[in-house]
Structures are given as structure tokens and as C-alpha cells.
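FIELD: query
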Amino acid sequence: MNLKFWQRNEPIYTDDNMNGTASSIAKISMFTIGVYLTGCLALAWWWDAEPSEFAVRENAALMAQSTNDNLVTGYVTTATLITVGDTLLHKRGGYLANDIFPPGVWMDNIPEWEFGALTLLRDTARVYRNDFSRSQSQSVEDPDLAEAEGKFFFDNNAWALPQTEGEYEEGLDLLRAYLVRLADQGQTDAQFYARADNLQQWLAAVGTRLGSMSQRLSASVGKRQLNTDLAGDTAASQATMAPKDQLVKTDWLKIDNVFYEARGFTWVLLHLLRAMEEDFGDVLDKKNARVSLQQIIRELEPTQDTVWSPMILNGDGLGLLANHSLVMGSYISRANAAIIDLRDLLTQG
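FIELD: result
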């Protein structure tokens, strides 16, 4: 009897087949990773751009036209503050400081720019709450401004529950609500007091920040610094003793961070100074101080010049290479000196 055996034809996997399959998977994986990294680098290049400047009065006029508001005292400054905050959140690439995925997590220049801009936004929101909107120290603070200040002081690196952008958006919405009430002739509970003492308070806060930035920028090359903490008062004391002479030097990995933080701060400062020239014009003219404020603006304008170098250089003082930090520190120091002079003018009768 003949028996027939039915045999299935099954593929035979050899070492060559397996190596070929593994090689194909590796090639596809490498290609995918390459495309992803290339896309991330292109996106990082696109996002790595600082916002352009805007005209403060025209910006306020457009905002007032869209809401049928009047350009009352304080409108230009408040509209400028809102636009600065909106730019911080919605510029090219959006808000990057709290990104946890590439390419945002790899970037540091623009996030440092954002922190500098945010610092002055916070300081100004505080002065709005404590000074600009109050007639005297015993007056009631504006509820929208009181809540807005807290929103802007939320952690700038939080990415969820709640998200930083959401908190700052709520702060901007509160500023918009204040602006609507400010422009409404039928309401008197929202006010902006353009007085010399209020402007001086804001300039004092700005001057403190500029002085710190100037020191941090000049420390890019390192310098010996004497301790002057208690100078001028023989009865003064401090909690712990500090060295009489010490070397102050910014870590080389943080030099570009300090530089771009200063760029962000001065970008906001330029816009707010131009806005306050509009709202505090009568005060400045009475003190014959308008030209002093204009000189501060003139000193700060070079801080926004294009950086043509692909990296922030850190040459030694008068050495062969440029030192971008020292140049920036020079502009800021001159502006701070002019702010001190302007504050003196505002205190005079």
C-alpha cells in the first residue's frame, strides 16, 4: 500500500534572513530618529527669535478702538503691560520656559529672555497694586489688580496642574478687566494716579533690578570686589560677617543666561518707559524731566541691537575677543545712572 504524506512548505529562517531583518529595522529607526532630530533642530532655530518692538501709543489706540474705550490717563501704560504679557505667552514658539519635550527643553536663550521679561512684568504688577491704582496708603486696593499680581508670581516652570500659561492668562484677563473699568467714565472705582511719587516708586524698583543685572554682567570676566555692605553708617550691622575682599565671577555656563535675561528685561522696560512718557507727560513737563526720561530710553535702545555672533563671547576686558556681557552691562549701568538722576528730579518741588 502506498502512503502519501502531505508536507507543508514552511519558510526556513536562516541567520542571513534574521540579520537582514534586524538591519532593516535599524535603518528605519535611524532614519526616523534623524528626521525627528532634524525637525527639532529646525523648530528650535525658528523659535529662537526675540519678539519685535511695537509702538505703544498705536497699540493702545488699536486696543481702545476694538473695545470703544477712551484713552484716559494710564490707558497707554496698562495696554502696554497687557501686550507685553501677551507677547510673552504667544510669541513665536509660545512660552518655552516650562517645556519638557524637545526642542523647547533643549533651549535656554529664549527661556532666559522670558524670565527677564517676566521679572519686570511682576514688579510692575506689584507697583500697580500698591501705588498706581491707589490715592494714598490707606485707600482700598483694586480687586482685579490684587488678584492679578498673585497670578504673575506663579511658578514660571510649572507645566501641569495648573499650567504656568493658564495662570498668566488669567492675570492678563484681570488686567483687561481693570482696563475696561479704567476707561469707563461711568465708573470711578478703577483709577490710575499719574503722580511724581508713583513714578518714582516704579523707577526705584527698576533701578534695583538694573543695578543687580549690571553687577552680574560685569562679573562675566571676574573681578575683585571690596565689601561695602555697611559703608556710610558706623552703627550698622549685619547677620553674619562677609569677607572684606572676594572674587566675583559668573559661571561660564551661565554667561549667556544672564545676557539674555537682561535682554528680556530691557525689552519690556523700553516699552513701559515709552508708555509712561505718554501717561506721566504732565508730571514730567512740570519737573522739566521729560528729556531725562528720553535719555534713559536712548541709553537702553542699543540693548536690543541684533547679536550677529552665533554665541555670546566672553573676551577678557580689552582682549582680542569681544565681551558681549560687558557691553550690555555698560548700557544698563548708564541707564541706571540716568534713572537715579530722574528720581532726584521727581523728588524736587
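FIELD: remark
The chain has one domain: 51-226+244-347.
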